[in-house]
Amino acid sequence: MTPITQVENIPLLEGRSVRVGELDLAIFNLGDRFAAIENKCPHRGGPLCDGIVSGTVVVCPLHGWRFDLNTGMPVRASAPDCVATFPARVQDGIVFVDLTARTVEQASASNGDFSPRV
Amino acid sequence: MKRLVVVGNGMAGVACVEQILKRGHDFEISIFGDETHANYNRILLSSVLAGEKTADDIVLNDVNWYRQNGIRARLGVRVEWVDRERRIALTGDGAEEPFDKLILATGSSAFIPRIQGVDKDNVHVFRTLDDARALIAKGCKGVRAVVIGGGLLGLEAARGLQLRGCEVTVVHLMETLMERQLDPMGGAYLRRKIENLGIRVMLPAETRAVIGNGHVDGLRFASGEEIEADLVVIAAGIKPNADLARAAGLEVRRGIVVDDYLQTSDPDIFAVGECTEHRGQTFGLVAPLMEQGKVLAAAITGNRDLAFTGAAPAAKLKIMGVEIFSAGAIDEPAGVETVSYQDASLGIYKKVFLQDNRLRGVILVGDASDERRYTNWLRDETDLTPHRKHLLFPPAPADDGLEVAQMPDSEVICGCNGVNKGAIIHAIHEHGIQTLADLKEHTRAASSCGSCKRLCQQLLRAVAPEFQEETRTTLCSCVPFSYEQLRQIVRGQQLKSVQEVLNVYGNRKGCEVCKPALSYMLDMIWCGEHEEDRSARFINDRVHANIQKDGTFSVVPRMRGGVTSPEELRRIADVAEKYRVRMVKVTGSQRIDLLGVKKADLPKVWADLGMPSGQAYTKGVRMVKTCVGTDFCRFGVQDSTHAGIELERRLENLYTPHKVKMGAVGCPRNCAEATVKDIGMVGQEGSWQVVVGGAAGKSVRKADLLITVETTEQALEACELFFQYYRESANYLERTYDFAERVGIETIRKETVYAPDAVKAGLLERLQRSKAMSKDAWLERDAPIHPTQFVPLEAIGTAALSETQTV
After folding, report:
1. Residue B744: how many CB atoms within 10 A of its CB?
2. What ipTM score was computed for the predicted complex, to two decimals?
3. What's the pLDDT tens digit per position in B300-310?
4. Is the pTM of this model over 0.80?
5. Could B786 and A11 be called an inter-chain contact, meaning their C-beta atoms sit closer than 8 Å?
6. DSSP string spanning B277-296?
7. Measured distance between the N- and C-terminal CA atoms of chain A, rounded to whole angstroms
């Protein structure tokens, strides 16, 4: 786990970007925990750190694609791909991210039609 | 053909006739109603009083319906006598109406308690459309109104009168408001909500006399205390209208006694609705009456497949922002177990009453979103053992649409009209229904109290192949209320943060649609008295610049009236070079746009520019485009340049439902295109025309004339009046041209430039208050609202990382 930043640097329900080596991360403060994802929307590369947070979903500020911060998966089968996620935890007021555990789910796994079957 | 006569043209009677038509019949049907109106939705009378609906809005069956169905309607005619021997109904105008079958649907009237002086002028009851109209006529601004009765109807009447501008007091005989539906704790929560709305509550208070000479001056209570009043409304309960039945010799106790088939003691005479008494119970709420109608329709057409076995009482208060639901029995005899939850600061109180692991009753205050679950548990007598952990809060549905998808076909969606999911789906397929309006028309679902609208829409969305959403009826599925409702909720419940609104009235999460809209609403209503939540805003409003496709930002400084100076231009040029601005663009708004600025550079760019924010990134005041007016132009007849600069100065830094672009031109040649702006000032010889609602974007619309005035100051004031009215009344993301189309220029004129002086003063005063609170957003360069507002984070572990990488 790599120490990234003090928790108070990220306001509640907002994201901030941080560059670690080649990697551009977006870290979000979800109130009860922090989430870390790659700061790049798979659609057109939008800065996800600047998106509005809705529960555990972030909405890309450029075109409104939505991604689950837990899994990186697009919500409602919208986007073409998943965004990479990294495990994050807080210790002694510092947000740590495990940069070695980059995870990208397969979008097709969730790409089912979400419209309710009645 | 047999003759069927229906006495009573109210909801229960007509709904019953609808069911008879549905079943198929061989009757010649006549309906007599002593009100002169076609059948209307009595439940919504309080909405008419409150001004939320008009009399036309609540009509359920218009005159055509009677004609199309071959029903003879006699309105304004009272049936005075039923001669059972001769099988004849005698009407007030002396006519004799023979019948083979008779349905009594005579309803109920207001119960008037024994109070001296109730015959005085300005003492009213509240049962009919005419009552509502009388109250509307008398309930003017400043009138002191007292409502006797703190039950469902009394509270709704009180709120209606208050929305009309009355100072309202509710006087209640008992210790608890709505004591038939609420326990003392629920009553206390309700009382606080009602008082929060600005309505005074007096209880327990026994009214002894209405005092005054001919008309009302006040009330005297048993305690000897007196209060002043100009208007008194008695809403102390109802009593079944059973006199006609009694005189005809039918069995009557409190109401007309009916059996499980709605038959009276005479097998050819049936009764339905509030006039009935079934197994000792009388009725005052709509759902059981609709059920009765179905059973009666079956019985009278010779079917005994349905029976009415009574109904658990259920009541819902229809006051926006005050959610109250109560159903079943709420007493606590031995063997009854209760589970409750309360949160005084959110005003939420829930209590369920259990017996033998089954729901016996429920009280919901402040959050009735879960009402349906309890209704079903009550009706089905569900064994709650598996639900014990979720008695007070439902487990979260995995997906919005799933809630309706998971329901069985037999589940009732519209409790008022008893329409289940299966029936709705069937109707959608059979009639090719595509809109909620059509669904209402065909099934009656969602046509009474409207609380199942959301579910109906979900069903339509899921089932109807070409479902057309109604235009923005609710803000968002996260918080399913209309803008107007939300404004009332925010004001009435004193909600001061986006999260609070979402917690109490929404799904707690919110999204990119509702969060910015709620932010705007709170800002407009509380104007600085609340805590701004930046996380609820779009990135543009977090950093006061317009995000571009590559994640950089554009910067447009304010250049009032499109007038600049050599110094400003020099600074702009210097900034463009210093920060390697990728493009410098003259905009269509007579300003200069610097494109490709990094977020971290924004504060420095603003400081170096030394100019205020042009608000080009937000839903706010953009600019006033001007022509050179009288200063230089050969044709200018008004000083549009300086008028435009002044208008921009007065309104700048304010936020609006959508962007506001303005223009001021010095003559009708219209060089700055003021007639296609949101607000335009068009100069002509000796006067200004103020025009609003123009557009030259995705649609092109010529602005409507608001008013023509002589002086520049008058023109500026007209602009301000419209501007503030738009801020307060438009839906979020509704441009002035959509607003003008929706509301109509006549209404806009009446509410702004032609409004009473007090109304105009109020608009200007609220505008001034907002203006005084507003500031140039770019000043956050020196006082960021958060230390990392503009700065990207620097990872503390980078060094550690490179070490681990080298290892």
Report:
1. 12
2. 0.90
3. 999 888 999 88
4. no
5. yes
6. EETTB---SHHHHHHHHHHH
7. 46
